[in-house]
Structure formats: structure tokens, C-alpha cells
Write a structure and sequence with these properties.
The two termini are 45 Å apart. The strands form five sheets. Strands 1, 8, 9, 10, 11, 12, 13, 16 and 17 form a nine-stranded mixed beta sheet that branches. The protein has a four-stranded antiparallel beta sheet with strand order 4-5-7-6, with helices on one face. The model has no long low-confidence stretch (mean pLDDT 93). β4 and β5 form a beta hairpin. 29% of the residues lie in helices and 20% in strands. With 549 residues, the protein is an alpha+beta fold. The longest helix has 18 residues, at 492-509. It is globular and about 70 Å long. The chain has 17 helices and 19 strands. It folds into four domains: 3-44, no CATH class; 91-192, Dipeptide-binding Protein, Domain 1 (Dipeptide-binding Protein, domain 1); 220-298 and 526-546, D-Maltodextrin-Binding Protein, domain 2 (3-Layer(aba) Sandwich), CATH 3.40.190; 305-519, Roll (Dipeptide-binding Protein, domain 3).
Length: 549
């Protein structure tokens, strides 16, 4: 990258790095978002990637994965990571955020952003084809983004992007270039393009059901897809990426996803017996797997603390949760250290009722609230419930830690006057109604920036209606205005000041309780090689191979 192409904000970031106001990783992350290549950003702070070591790669074989096989139609409607893990092998994304939370071009060759962060130029890779032979062009990008912004589709991406981008702001410049003209500044465009429902569609063949016309640019083709049973993917010839051995990817012949139900015990037994090579924990609780396999010499079980969370959410448009005193009372009944220890074996970090993770770059440190049933009881009385309150609590039984969390909360909330009726249900059933229950616990996956989940889950569209993934229906005018400012603020010091306010508002009058942030695990047998861990448990498996005799 030449000097004249360096975004002015990169130089500001360099000054902040020199003054030790930001870390080396944050410098690389934000420089990459501003269009600088990762290698160039790393060289600016004195880091030079080591040459890749040649490995003896074995081609062929089938990777067998225990994973739910959901009903799937439109990828933009994905509400779970696991189906995206199956279909990301067939369809692909414009960008890719790696395990270090650094975002790279993928189907894009590069991008450029204006100084005011309102005009983004997306430069597409050329020569890529869909698996039906159609050429990948800007028409596919324009079509796909319009699908995301279509209210009738109901994609969560509408909540993420709809506040700053309208269909009229999407400009096709040429067959290989698209410009996005935003209504307001936004720094995280490249990361938003890797949100897991953001698979790029073939504009010529997509008619609302990807299973019927599974035409993607990825390394595999969809051979079999039977909901609740199995999905089989076959290696595609003439895929656009090459491997470390100089030959075309992927290394595997096929991938098979086997639905073994929501209970972990059969999946653990199958992995130990070698009947499957991996358990996809993208949407599953990992504590049973951790306990059962942490000492197994045949299993790779690599944990990392992430911003994945079990979010206790309360519908503020329904009684009694429309009263902030009742919401606060229940949050005060969370004995956080106890819940983390007993429900998740201390494999994570304590939370504090705001959906901003302590390792997000813009995080503003807050005190973890204490368990205080006395104050909770007083608040319930002030809200008109001096004799206590009976509530229903919906949880999916496929998440052992969530069930245990609910059981602990039920006991610890009794002194405050809460009578909690736990309604357990199959995980699939919870996902069918996760935005509709009045009180429940919803798993939320990792996001690299604090602004992303806040935009997805706690805002409204331009008509004032809560966005599709705003399951609690909580919309706060002051919070929304501060979030808009934060989305367009690059300076981390200024961004953190805004987050100090955002976090406090959500803690004081928000609709959620977050007791803990979870460690997650990518769990495979040891013969599965070249697995790159991802904090969202995304299966980025183009270069995975099997070392089997």
C-alpha cells in the first residue's frame, strides 16, 4: 500500500499506539478495518509474519461432525451458528474475521473507506465462479445486500446495517466494484460483512430457499440435506483458493454432519469411540464435553474465553417486565460467582448485565454487581408486589449450564420474593420462540466489537419498531443516540467514553442479565489437522485434513 492510500485515521492510530493508548492488536485490527492490508499494518508496528512451514498434507477422506441439522431456507434468516457452519462450506462471505478478531478480505480483494467513514468501496475478486458455473460479480453483492435490508426477509442483518444503509445507498460501479453510501459513519463495515447470516447469494438462481438451489462460491457442494438427520457436502472441483501444497482446495473429499439430537452424552460417546471426528459446539453448552473429554489423550479440546454469553432477557413490552424495578430486582438475585462456579465450572468470566465484553477494545470497566436479595425484595414491593411475584422462565434443555443457571437463580431469588417456574423445553423448540417468551435465557455468540451486539439486539429500525433480533423489545432513546456516535468513532479513548455511558444505561435500566462470559471449545479427535480455533466456533475448514492411516 502506498503512502497516499493510507487512511488518515491509520496515522492517528499509530500515534495512539506510540503513546501506548492502544495495543498492537487493536492497531492491526482497526487499520485492517480502514482498508490497510494486515501484513502492512503488522510491519508498521514491527511484526513480520513467519514463513509458513511446509506440512505433509494427506488429501481425501470424510470429516464426520455431530451437529444439529436444522430446517433451513434463507441464509440471511440464520439464528444459529451451526447451520452457518454447514452452509459456509458451500457459500462464502465478502470478508473473514479470524481467531484474533482481525478482519481480512475474502470474496473481496480489498476495500477503501472515505475519511468520514460514510463511503465504502468494495473491490471484488475476479475470476471466482459459483458451483453452477455462474461468474461471481457485483450483481450478486447488490442482490444479497438488498435481501439483508428487505424487511420481508426478516434478517438480523437489518438490525445491524439498516440503521446506516438504505437500498438506495448501494451503488454498482462496475462488474467488480460496489460502493456503499452510508447515512452515518460506521467503522465496522468489514466485520458486519462476516456476520454469519451474510452468505453471498447467486442473484440468478436464488429464490428464497438455498437448499433447493445451493449455488455458492465455496469449496463444497451440497449433496444431501435432510432436516433432523444429516447433511453431506462433496468436494468441489475448480474452487478458487489454493492450499499450502500449491494445489486446489479443499483437502477433504467430503464432510458429513450427523444430527444426534440435543443430548450431549451420545455425541460424547460417538467422539470417544471414533464414530465422529468432531462435535460442533457452535450453539451447544460445552460443560459436559469439557468435563468428559478434558483428560482424553485422543481428543483436542482447546478453550478460550470469549464474548459468548447466556443472556437472561426480559420482554419490556409485557408485564411485569415493563417495570424497571422488577427487572432490576431479578438481576440483583444473580449470585454471579456461584452461578459461574456451579453452572460452568468457573470456565469463563463474571458478567455485569451489559452486553459488552471485558476484552472488547472499547470496554469501560464496571464493578460487578453484588447478590442483594434484600434490595430486590424492596424493589418488588415498590413495584406493587409486596407479597412476591410468580414468573415463568423458559430455557432450552440442550444447554446443561443454562438449566443449572436457572435452577440456581430459582433458589437464590426466593428470599427476594420471586417464585420462578422453570419451563424447560427442547432446544429446537426454544429457538422457535426465542424472541417471543417473556422471560428466558438465550445464548448469544461472540462478536469482535462491542457495538455489533448492541446494534443487533437493543435498537429499533427507522420506523421505531424493534429490529428482528431485539428479543427483549428494549429501545432507549439516549442509548440509541450514544450508540450511533460510537459506531462512527474511531478514536478508542473517545469511543470508550461513550461506552462508559452505554454500559451504565444498560445496567441501570436495560432488559438483560449477563451472569458470565463463556469459555468455548472446538472439539475434535487428534487426527483432525490444521484446525484454526475461532471464538465464535466458526468452522473455517478449507485447509483441514485428516491424518488417518
Amino acid at each position: 500500500m502506498t503512502e497516499k492510500k493510507v487512511h488518515p485515521h491509520v496515522l492517528n492510530l499509530m500515534d495512539q499506539y506510540a503513546q501506548k493508548k492502544i495495543t498492537r492488536r487493536d492497531f492491526v485490527r482497526y487499520s485492517a478495518l480502514l482498508g490497510m492490508s494486515v501484513s502492512a499494518a503488522m510491519s508498521m508496528v514491527g511484526v513480520f509474519p513467519k514463513p509458513a512451514q511446509a506440512a505433509t498434507i494427506k488429501r481425501g477422506g470424510t470429516l464426520r461432525v455431530a451437529a444439529p441439522v436444522h430446517k433451513v431456507t434463507h441464509p440471511a434468516q440464520f439464528s444459529w451458528v451451526t447451520p452457518s457452519n454447514q452452509f459456509r462450506q458451500v457459500g462464502e462471505y465478502l470478508t473473514m474475521t479470524d481467531g484474533d478478531n482481525v478482519t481480512h478480505p475474502y470474496l473481496l480483494q480489498s476495500w477503501e473507506v472515505s475519511q468520514d467513514l460514510k463511503t465504502w468501496t468494495l473491490n471484488l475478486r475476479q475470476g471466482i465462479k459459483f458451483n453452477n458455473g455462474d461468474e461471481f460479480t457485483s450483481d450478486d453483492v447488490v442482490f444479497t445486500i438488498n435481501q439483508w435490508l428487505n424487511k420481508d426477509v426478516g434478517s438480523s442483518i437489518l438490525g445491524l446495517m439498516g440503521g446506516y444503509l438504505k437500498p438506495t445507498g448501494i451503488e454498482k460501479v462496475s462488474a467488480s466494484q460496489v460502493k456503499l453510501h452510508l447515512d452515518k459513519p460506521e467503522i465496522a463495515i468489514p466485520e458486519h460483512l462476516f456476520h454469519y447470516p451474510a452468505i453471498i447469494l447467486n442473484h440468478k438462481t436464488f429464490e428464497g430457499d438455498f437448499v433447493k438451489n445451493p449455488h455458492g462460491t465455496g469449496p463444497y457442494t451440497l449433496d444431501v440435506y435432510r432436516e433432523g438427520e444429516r447433511a453431506v457436502l462433496k468436494r468441489r472441483d475448480e474452487y478458487w483458493q489454493k492450499g499450502d501444497d500449491g494445489n486446489m482446495l479443499p483437502y477433504l473429499d467430503s464432510m458429513e454432519f450427523i444430527d444426534m439430537g440435543s443430548e450431549m452424552a451420545p455425541q460424547i460417546a460417538a467422539l470417544k469411540a471414533g464414530e465422529v471426528d468432531m462435535i460442533d459446539l457452535g450453539d451447544a453448552g460445552g460443560t459436559e464435553v469439557y468435563q468428559a473429554l478434558k483428560d482424553d489423550p485422543n481428543i483436542d479440546l482447546n478453550p478460550a474465553t470469549t464474548s459468548q454469553a447466556r443472556v437472561m432477557r426480559m420482554r419490556v413490552d409485557l408485564k411485569p417486565w415493563d417495570d424497571v424495578r422488577v427487572r432490576t430486582a431479578l438481576k440483583l438475585c444473580q449470585h454471579r460467582e456461584k452461578i459461574l462456579a456451579l453452572a460452568y465450572f468457573d470456565q469463563g468470566l463474571p458478567g455485569h448485565d451489559t452486553h459488552v465484553y471485558p476484552k472488547h477494545p472499547e470496554y469501560c470497566q464496571k464493578t460487578i454487581p453484588s447478590y442483594d436479595p434484600g434490595k430486590a425484595k424492596q424493589l418488588l414491593a415498590e413495584a406493587g408486589y409486596p407479597n412476591g411475584l410468580k414468573v415463568n422462565f423458559a430455557v432450552g434443555n440442550g444447554w446443561a449450564d443454562v438449566v443449572r443457571y436457572a435452577e440456581i437463580l430459582k433458589q437464590d431469588a426466593k428470599p427476594a420474593g420471586f417464585d420462578i417456574n422453570i419451563q424447560t423445553m427442547p432446544t429446537a423448540q426454544y429457538w422457535e420462540k426465542w424472541t417471543e417468551v417473556d422471560l428466558g435465557v438465550t445464548p448469544w455468540t461472540h462478536r469482535p466489537l462491542g457495538t455489533m451486539v448492541l446494534s443487533l439486539a437493543y435498537t429499533a429500525d427507522d420506523t421505531g419498531k424493534p429490529v428482528p433480533w431485539n428479543e427483549s423489545r428494549w429501545v432507549d432513546k439516549e442509548f440509541s443516540e450514544l450508540l450511533k456516535q460510537a459506531n462512527g468513532t474511531i478514536d478508542l479513548e473517545e469511543r470508550r467514553k461513550l461506552f462508559c455511558q452505554l454500559e451504565q444505561i444498560q445496567m441501570d435500566r436495560g432488559s438483560i442479565g449477563i451472569t458470565y462470559w463463556r469459555n468455548v471449545w472446538m472439539t475434535t479427535r487428534k487426527h483432525v489437522k490444521n484446525v484454526n480455533y475461532h471464538p465464535t466456533n466458526y468452522m473455517l475448514f478449507n485447509k483441514v485434513w485428516l491424518d488417518k492411516a
